[in-house]
Amino acid sequence: QVQLVESGGGLVEAGGSLRLSCATSRSVSSVHMMAWHRQAPGKERELVASISGNGRTNYNDYLNGRFTISGDIAKNTVDLQMNNLKPEDTAVYYCYLYSWGLGRDFWGQGTQVTVSS
């Protein structure tokens, strides 16, 4: 069974930065895309940013350039650099991977990010 292992969450003051990292427990072939989602208390899970096998990135519009996704899809790793964090960024952040070869997706267990005002 493939597991996505996240790291880098924590508590930071508003205006600070955090970097999240995600890697798979074993190699997954034919990965189409990796991404970060987040879920705040009482809200639905939402996409933060994604990166595809050809390096194309996509961001949720509300980020206004504060976050940057990077990674090596072939090595099944993805990072999320978060700058100028705001209290509304407080959420559990989940790593996501879709493999077209396996025809399914995988989710990490989530890492908590808390931004204090």
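The above is record 1. Record 2 follows with the same two-line structure.
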Amino acid sequence: QVQLVESGGGLVQAGGSLRLSCAASGRTFSFVTMGWFRQAPGKEREFVARITWSGGSTYYADSVKGRFAISRDRAKFTVYLQMNNLKPEDTAVYYCSARVGITDYWGQGTQVTVSS
């Protein structure tokens, strides 16, 4: 089993920045990737960014490229999402995910609200 705990969400004005953190515990030695997804009210959950645990390769949704940066601290089993130049359309609950084998684990989510 894997436990994921997100933190760092909040309310910010458009153009501002936030940094999300996701601390993992459990079967961390088996991680393949960790990532972030988000879900806005009335919309489906969508991919935001992911990082490979061993090599650190990163992937982003087109909507956040150039504004968001995902990183990891392998010693702390923590993944981060630095979000810059935030827009009102970034408002959503942000979920951390971890893939172990073919199984995806999810955190409880953290709310990000961007005011215009």
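The CA atoms of residues 93 and 111 lie 4 Å apart.
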